[in-house]
Design goal:
By secondary structure, this protein is of the alpha+beta class. The chain has three helices and 13 strands; from the N terminus they run H-E-E-E-E-E-E-H-E-E-E-E-E-E-H-E.
Amino acid sequence: MSRIGKKPVTLPKGVDVQIAEGNLVTVKGSKGTLTQQLHPDMIIVQENGELTVQRPSDTKLHKSLHGLTRTLIANMVVGVTDGWQRALEINGVGYRAVLEGQTLVLSLGFSHQVRREPPPNVQYVVGERKSANEPLGLIVRGIDKQVVGEEASRIRALRPPEPYKGKGVKYAEEKVRRKAGKAGKAR
């Protein structure tokens, strides 16, 4: 049996979960409301401030959906209570990020500035650069884990980090393997 699927999802105070017909799950919390259609075969039971997910049979499909369904519900609960965030770093001479209202304006070495409008329930936070050699911090925040991750991935894809100088946009926890370049060439 799935170890993750067996674990109950505890509902904090202030979180309201409604399970409609066909496993349409709506989670309301202090940060907002999330709705997701989950697989109709899974059995979602709410009792004593906990949600448990049960599978109807031991088929391969139901086994794979068991842990997934529980994790999706747990991510929704965390999203409406604490929220999700993904940190990015911008490295490079002249590379900048500025907020104009809700719009993120990026200068990434192109002939033009790149403008990004945030998806619904997502906001950007731009940090301060302490020195010219330090990377600029950018945080993508929201209540939906999938949307936050996709938006951070789209921003990173604008200028992925390159291995020679390390310039570009990377995740804060990402390590860029540096290459030597042409300095090692013998004449």
